Amino acid sequence: MNGPLLSVVDLHTQFHTDEGTVHAVDGIDFDVNAGETVCIVGESGSGKTVTSESITKLLPIPPGDIPEGRIEFRDLETVRELADAFPRHVFDVVEGEDREQGHGEQQVGDDQFVVVEERSGEDITRGYVDLTRAPEQALRHIRGGDVAHVFQNPQSALDPVYTVGWQIVEAIQLHSDTDDATARERAIDLLDRVGIPDAATRVDNYPHEFSGGMKQRVIVAIALASNPALLVADEPTTALDVTIQAQILGLLQEIQDDLDMAVLFVTHDLGVVAEIADRVVVMYAGEVMETGDVFDLFENPAHPYTRALLECLPGRGDETVSIDGSLPSPTAPPDGCRFAPRCPHAVEECTTGDQPPLHPVEDRDQTVSCVYYGDDYDERVVQTAFSSAQDSSARTDGGPVADDDSVRSEAVSDE
Ligand SMILES: Nc1ncnc2c1ncn2[C@@H]1O[C@H](COP(=O)(O)OP(=O)(O)OP(=O)(O)O)[C@@H](O)[C@H]1O
Ligand code: NI
Fold first, then answer.
1. Share of the chain above pLDDT 90, in %
2. CA Rg, the chain, in Å?
3. Distance in Å from the first CA to the final CA of the chain
4. Contacts of 103 (CB under 8 A, 6+ apart)
5. What is the band of 279 on the pLDDT scale with cuts at 50, 70, 90?
6. What are the CA-CA distances from residue 181 to residues 144, 202, 219 (Å)?
7. What residue spans carry the Polar residues bias annotation (predicted)?
């Protein structure tokens, strides 16, 4: 077993600006397993897009910068290919004797982005590519190959001067030795699969000859052309027609099951999350507040922030209410839990030190960054208030009340 397909480990992504350093992503951890759909949710500005763009390194660097952390991509085929192509950049844990002799952990060099953890003879059987250290040349190989990034903006993702067929053929041939005729056949097949009627004719059309929804399908077809192990998709705030969006999501899921492809989907729509996610990562102000199985998390939201988010979900709580208060300053984030200034249950410990570690939730497939789930507090305090979070009397238990004069945040579903 080579572990999860993708492991984000202590990722820090910053932007150096005239106003100071923006701590957009400030030490987050989560995994994506092969074949599963993980949704990242959170209010606008919480760092979802920066996280997804850190993975495919589509981040503008500079001003962007990843000073700390790793993004381990554990697709074995990719690890083997890149170990072959970049032999000088391989860190071989197996070959190093230091561990045996008790010299402690060996240091991976800055330019060593392929880490081999286990071999069977010559063959690599466990290891990863660290996407944060990979040079542009290696990233080009990975991007649009084993990791595809779908921008859900048809306007900018397609090249207006080439036919859609040409663009799909290019994507196919970039990563495999496929002759023109075979690639064209596969392009037609892909268009057919994403639900474009009369694909054999449409393959020779230009992007402007397609409607918005059909363009979106073409973009998905291009992303699938290389048979990616992981598809990263960031939902835009200027959303497409909801029915088209639902169709495309349904389509993605069908194809995903066929190809055993993992999907990392960024959204602030909890309805979409309920529909497509296997697991959920809840982000707030550059930190992960909670992760978990989608059923466990919806049934038993553990973090007060997740609870507040769910309260804003239509049909769940009172959807006219948004969470009181606003995101903390990204250049000068507060100590302790980022959500503490808005949390009805915050106690003194919540306002000092680092963001609390992710504690496992008892009997659930969930982890939560909240002191109440540690040994010193009773988590029932944050759980009982769920259904009455809008009731102001419920705010007085467990700790200081959020400042009522503070600015109302943008609603969670602000598209
Ligand atoms: N190029 C940049 N320069 C400076 N700050 C940036 C840059 N890009 C993003 N940020 C900041 O990083 C933080 C996280 O932004 P991000 O776009 O990841 O949020 P998001 O969760 O995707 O929000 P939305 O739901 O609105 O898309 C924000 O404070 C944002 O202002
Ligand atoms: Ni975003």
1. 56
2. 23
3. 41
4. none
5. very high
6. 21, 16, 21
7. 386-395
Which amino acids bring their CB within 6 angstroms of ligand 1?
15, 17, 22, 24, 42, 44-50, 60, 63, 237, 268, 330
Count other Cβ atoms within 10 Å, centred on residue 195. 17
Q: For residue 144, is it left (φ>0), alpha (ψ between -120 and 50) or beta?
A: left
Distance CA 291, CA 29 (A): 10
Q: How confident is the model at residue 404 (pLDDT cuts 50, 70, 90)?
A: very low
For the beta sheet containing 123-130, the strands, ordered from the edge strand earlier in sequence to the opposite edge, are 20-32, 6-17, 64-73, 123-130, 114-120, 90-92
Q: How big, in percent rounded to 5, are the helix, strand and coil portions of the chain?
A: 35, 20, 45
* C-alpha span between 113 and 93 (Å, rounded): 13
Pocket test for ligand 1, best of 46, 238, 268 (most atoms within 8 A of CB): 46
d(CA 235, CA 216): 12
d(CA 142, CA 196): 27
Nearest ligand 1 atom, CA 266: 22
Residue 57 Cα to ligand 1 midpoint, Å, equals 15
What pLDDT sits at residue 104? 47
Annotate 204-266 with DSSP letters as a single string. T--GGGS-HHHHHHHHHHHHHTT--SEEEEE--SS---HHHHHHHHHHHHHHHHHHT-EEEEE
Q: Do residues 328 and 338 make contact, with C-beta atoms less than 8 angstroms apart?
A: yes
Cα torsion 216, 222, 225, 229: sign: negative
Task: Annotate 119-148 with b (16+ C-beta within 10 A) or e (fewer).
Answer: eeeeebbbbbbbbbbbeeebbebbbbbbbb
Give the amino acid at 70: R
Q: pLDDT for 42-74, tens place per residue?
A: 988 999 999 999 998 778 888 899 999 999 999
**What is the average pLDDT across 133-137?**
91
The pLDDT-based confidence of 88 (bands split at 50, 70, 90) is very high
